[in-house]
Design goal:
The chain is of the alpha/beta class. The protein has one domain: 3-Layer(aba) Sandwich (Rossmann fold). The chain has five helices and three strands. The relative contact order is 0.20.
C-alpha cells in the first residue's frame, strides 16, 4: 500500500497521547478539562490548531486523523494515553475508526494518568510499563 505521495506505508505506528482532532469536539475536552493539569486549549492549543489548519479545514483528515477513511488500510497501530487526558476521546475515536476498518490496533490506557505521562513522570510504574509495551510493539512489527 502506498501513501498519496507514492511512499510505502510505515511498518507500524505508535501514538503517545496523540492530538488527533484539532477541533475541541471530543467530550473529554470538557469533562476532563479540570482533571488534566496539561490542558492548555484556551492558552495555547487553539492557536496551534489555527496555525496548523484554517478553522474551516480542521476536520480534514490530514489535520485531524479521527475524520479519516481507513478502509484502504493503515499500519498496525498502538495508541497509548491516560484516562485523565482531555484528548482521550479523540484517541478513543481514532481507535474505533481503525478497529471498524478491521485494522490491527491496540488502545493502551492508564488509570489516573495525564497527557504525556510517559515523558512527564518517567519513573512512574505506569510510564515504565508503557515504555516496555512500546518496545515490544515496535520489535514485533519491525522484526527486531
Amino acid at each position: 500500500m502506498a501513501t498519496p505521495q507514492g511512499l510505502g506505508m510505515p511498518a507500524a505506528a505508535v501514538l503517545v497521547s496523540p492530538w488527533v482532532d484539532v477541533t475541541p469536539s471530543g467530550d473529554t475536552e470538557s469533562t476532563l478539562h479540570d482533571a488534566d493539569p496539561n490542558q492548555l486549549y484556551e492558552k495555547h492549543s487553539k492557536y496551534a490548531a489555527a496555525a496548523f489548519a484554517n478553522p474551516g479545514d480542521q476536520k480534514d483528515p490530514y489535520a485531524s486523523p479521527v475524520y479519516g477513511d481507513y478502509s484502504k488500510g493503515f499500519p498496525p497501530t498502538l495508541i497509548q494515553g491516560g484516562l485523565k487526558e482531555t484528548l482521550l476521546s479523540g484517541f478513543v475515536r481514532l481507535y474505533q475508526a481503525l478497529d471498524v476498518a478491521a485494522l490491527p490496533v491496540k488502545l493502551d490506557l492508564y488509570e489516573g494518568m495525564v497527557h504525556n505521562f510517559q515523558d512527564r513522570i518517567p519513573d512512574a510504574p505506569e510510564s515504565i510499563l508503557a515504555a516496555r509495551k512500546v518496545r515490544t510493539f515496535v520489535h514485533q512489527h519491525l522484526g527486531m
